[in-house]
Amino acid sequence: MIFTRAPQVSLVRPAATHPTPRFPFPSGRVGARLDGMSSNFHAAPSGTSQEPLYDTSVATPSHAERARTLAASRKSGTLSTLCEDPAGHPYGSLVTTALHDGAPIFLISALAEHTKNLRRDPRASLLLAEGGDENPLALGRVTLLGTCTELDKADPASAGPRATFLAAHPDAQYYVDYGDFAFFRLEIVSLRYIGGFGRMSWVSAEDWAAASADPIAPLAAGILEHMNEDHRDAMRSYCLAFSKATDFDEVRMTGVDRHGFEMSVKTREGGWRPVRLGFSGPVSTADEVRKEMVALVQRARAALGG
C-alpha cells in the first residue's frame, strides 16, 4: 500500500482537496516513552496561567493507569531495603524485575545485601524510572512501597511468577535454579507516582490493583512518528475544529493513549501549549486508533467547511 507524504504545514485551513489520511500505523514499534503515552501539565508560575486551549474534562489516564503502564515497561529498578548496620538506614540496590498480576517479582541471591535485609525486615520500596535524554526530573517515575514475600520454588503457585520473570529476563534461566537464588514478590501497600514537574500523587493499593497498563503504550512511538511525519495537515484540522488553538505556527503530536491523544502547538506569542482530544471510547489496538483519528479528521474538515 502506497501513501503520499503530507504537504508541509500551512498557516491556512486545509483545503477540501486534501485526501482523508489512512494512518498506516506500524504495528511492531515498541519502546515508547511514557510521555509518548500522554502527559498532564504542571501549573504555571503565579500570575502567568493561561486559559487551556482544550476541554479539560476530556478523558485522560488516571495516575494509577500511568503508574501501571510505566511499571509494566521497566525491567530494572532501585530496590530499597532496611540495613542492619548501620541500623535502619535505607539501602538502595539495582535489581531486575517483572510485573506479575500487579506485583513486582525479583530473583535475588542470598549473597546480596538486599536479600539479607529482606529476610530480616521485609519492608521495602522499588523505584522504577523512565529513561531518556531530557531532564530526568521531567520524566515519569513511580515508587512502590510494600512488604516482600519469599516464594517457595517447590510450590506450584510460584510457577506463574517464575515464568513471567524468565520471559522478561531470559538470561536468568542460567542461574534461576542455583541454590542461593530465590524469588521475592513485593506486596504493594501504597505508591507515589510522579509524571514530571508538578504532576504527582499518592495512589492506593486498591486503585493500583484495579488499573491496567495502557495497551497503546508499546505502539505510541510508531504512531507519533507517523503522524508527525505524514499527517501534520490532519493535526492542524484537529486543532482548528476542536480546540481554541486558532493562531499557531507549528503543531506536533506528543502523546497517545487508550483514551485519546495530545498535541503541542507553537503559538504566535511564542511557546508551546498543549491540546488534548479524546476518542469516542477506550481503544486497545493501532487499528482502533487509526479509525478514531480518521473519523475525527472527517468531522474536523466537515466543521471547517472542507
Description:
This protein is α+β, with helices and mostly antiparallel strands and 306 residues long. It folds into 2 domains: 1-42 and 52-61 and 214-306, Split barrel-like, CATH 3.20.180.10; 64-210, Roll (Pnp Oxidase, Chain A), CATH 2.30.110.10. The protein is 26% helix and 27% strand. It is built from 8 helices and 11 strands. It has helices at residues 34-37, 63-73, 113-120, 159-168, 205-210, 220-230, 232-242, 286-303; strands spanning 76-82, 90-96, 98-100, 103-109, 123-129, 141-150, 181-194, 200-204, 248-256, 260-267, 272-278. The strands form 2 sheets. Strands 1, 2, 3, 4, 5, 6, 7 and 8 form an 8-stranded antiparallel β-sheet that branches. A 3-stranded antiparallel β-sheet has the order 9-10-11. Helix 7 (232-242) packs across helix 8. The longest helix is centred in the C-terminal third of the chain and has 18 residues, at 286-303. It is elongated and about 70 Å long. The two termini are 26 Å apart. 38% of the residues are buried.
Helix content: 25-40%
Q: How large is the radius of gyration?
A: 23 Å
The unreliable regions are: 1-21, 26-35, 38-43
Note the run of SSEs as H and E.
HHEEEEHEEHEEHHHEEEH
Total DSSP E strands: 11
Oligomeric grouping of the chains: single chain
Structural descriptors:
306 residues; alpha+beta; Split barrel-like; Pnp Oxidase, Chain A; 2 domains; 8-stranded antiparallel sheet; 8 helices; 11 strands
